Model the fold of this input.
Amino acid sequence: MAVTFTLYDSYDQYVHDGTINLNSTGKVMLALVTSSYTFSAAHTIWADASTNEVASGDGYTTGGAALGTLAITAAKFSSANVTIAALTKTFRRGILYINDTVNGIVKPLIGAILYDATPADISITGGDFVTQVPTAGWISFG
Done:
């Protein structure tokens, strides 16, 4: 299972105009979406993907899990691994977004994780699902 992370096209603009603040502790979220979501790098806000979010319950809370231990260095943006405990769901992607309205933009998107490059669905039954942060971080600078 090869995992890939892709930034949305609007990410650079959002960083430069201050819409995305990667120091937004408790506001950078990881939400799970089903295979019904068709990824487009042109998507800009959480509403572009949220209709395909997995339902609340069975270990998952609508809106996703907040990224903890955010860290920004000259080289990368990273966080702690994200664990969703006792999960029973089928999904295909994780979506990183800011859970806030900034500069009039409601819940701007950062990037999407494709958990299986086949692509194939991921099915978890009553287990902890851990999204591991890449060694180079979510985003590498420079």
The chain has a mean pLDDT of 93. The two ends are 28 Å apart (CA to CA).
